[in-house]
Amino acid sequence: MARGKYIAFEGGGGTGKDTLIELFKQKVAGREDFVFTRAPGGTPMGERIRELLLSPEAKELHPRAEFLLFLAAHTELIEKVIAPALEEGKNVVSNRSLLSLIAYQSYGREQMNDFMLMQEAIRFVMRGHIPDLCLLLDAPPKLAIARARKRPGEPHRFVTEELEFQERVREGYKKHVGTFAHKSVVIDTSGTTEEAWTKTQEALESFLLKRL
């Protein structure tokens, strides 16, 4: 059986990941060869770690402790969802991947002294399960965060970080998007949802070699 494809949607808060993934999900509704998940999360334990990491209390975490908790959640997701699905020939679509740890925990948290160790830890957890396609959704942080803060409900703590943090996250994404994916496409999502979806659909169809 041919291995499935691993597709990751990446980008800072407010760049449109949830919206575009939902549109993709609608296009392939009813198909059993697609599995949709999110990171952190996607497993019972991963969701519990996610809840902790996004809580206001987690602001007190040391940056290395934060990184290791994210790493634990990703390990659960890869071992229990992503790897088994790919081996069954299913295509996995994930809202975020381990690339987020480079962007947020290394660049955002300014932990560059530990950058090489972080990369080694990420590769250890990946076990070769690198996204076949990473779609990096990109928009100016000031615009993206303004969008994110307008969502219903209380914004999580990464959305409330200062603009300088968001700029560093964007820098990390742009510098390393090609490092943790076999193929990457940067999609400008600063315009309308329709414009962003048109670009996303074109990238997906080009990669999957079929119309959605």
Q: How would you explain this protein's 3D organization?
A:
The chain has eight helices and five strands, in the order βαβααβααβααβα. The protein is an alpha/beta fold and 212 residues long. It starts with 5 loop residues before the first strand and ends with a helix. α1 packs across α8 (193-208), α3 packs parallel to α5 (115-126) and α4 (99-108) packs across α7 (163-176). It has a five-stranded parallel sheet with strand order 2-3-1-4-5, sandwiched between helices. The protein has a single domain, classed as 3-Layer(aba) Sandwich (Rossmann fold), CATH 3.40.50.300.
List keywords for this structure.
212 residues, alpha/beta, Rossmann fold, five-stranded parallel β-sheet, 8 helices, 5 strands, 12% strand
Give the overall average pLDDT.
96
Count of individual domains: 1
Roughly how many Å apart are the termini? 23 Å
DSSP, total strands? 5
Q: Outline the biggest β-sheet.
A: 5 strands, parallel
Q: Give the strand order, joined by hyphens, for the main sheet.
A: 2-3-1-4-5
Q: In a few lines, what is going on in this structure?
A:
The protein has eight helices and five strands, in the order E-H-E-H-H-E-H-H-E-H-H-E-H. The protein has 212 residues and is an alpha/beta fold.
Protein topology:
Blueprint: E1 6-10, H1 17-27, E2 34-38, H2 44-54, H3 63-87, E3 91-95, H4 99-108, H5 115-126, E4 133-138, H6 141-149, H7 163-176, E5 184-188, H8 193-208
